[in-house]
Amino acid sequence: MRRSIWVTVAIFVVCLSMTPEIKAQTQGWEEIFFRANQAYKGGHFQEAVDGYSKLIRFGHGQGQGELYYNLGNAYFRLHQLGRAILNYERAHLLIPRDEDLKYNLGYAREKTQDAVPKSQGFIGMTFFWLGSLSLSEVFWGFGILNMLFWGVLLIRLIFHSEWTYYLSLVLLVSWLIVCISFGLKWYQTETDDRAVILKPEVSILAGPDIRDTVLFKLHEGTTAHLERSEDGWSLIHLSEQKRGWIKKEDLERINP
């Protein structure tokens, strides 16, 4: 697959800095990744799903976004639309600017049966750039800018140059913007309550009991907001008017 080059390079770089025992283990992960790619190319999509899932499950951190993307592709080819969208969304949290991912996610969403209105909210509209950045990117940007800001202040204390005064002002404003951005991005990530319906069709009930009234039905791939779970049931909502209970195993949270 197209992603294999980047993930293989990441694995190779990690291998260079590891002990022989860990290198041997990593080479095992590399073999799993290679076999999963070969399985996908050969049309053995369930085998590819098993391989990519194993790498993700054991926290093979390098290239996680690409692994989720590949896993989403494999599920899509298995006609499991819900799990395909779930893994595309997880990949989007890590590699939000990837054009292939955005296209595949958009195409998969078009296949869903339920029209769900989307709203960016005040934060999304005001800090519009957050949608194209991952949490780790904002964190590293904040860290680098923080070092630059305090570095320039230190230089100004020593040399008292006029240019350091104006540069420190610019960096201070930038630091404040990035600091707020990081805080908001972290808050968005931690409060991300989106979940994807995994079953072909599910009934949304008035209460957490199979005998309760069916309010409406949802279909595979629909993204809802998860409020809470109890006794094997989850309370979800699509809007203020559309809200109800669903069996917990019928959906999965995007940000676990």
Structural summary, described in words:
The protein is of the alpha+beta class. It folds into three domains: 4-110, Tetratricopeptide repeat domain (Serine Threonine Protein Phosphatase 5, Tetratricopeptide repeat, Alpha Horseshoe), CATH 1.25.40; 122-190; 194-253, SH3 Domains (SH3 type barrels, Roll), CATH 2.30.30. The protein is 58% helix and 14% strand. The protein is built from nine helices and seven strands. The chain has helices spanning 4-16, 20-41, 45-57, 64-77, 81-94, 99-110, 121-126, 135-159, 162-190, and strands at residues 194-197, 201-205, 214-219, 223-230, 233-237, 243-247, 251-253. The chain has a five-stranded antiparallel sheet with strand order 6-5-4-1-7. Strands 2-3 form a two-stranded antiparallel ribbon. A hairpin with a 2-residue loop joins strand 4 (223-230) and strand 5. Helix 5 packs antiparallel against helix 6. 25% of the residues are buried. Mean pLDDT is 85; it is low at 11-24.
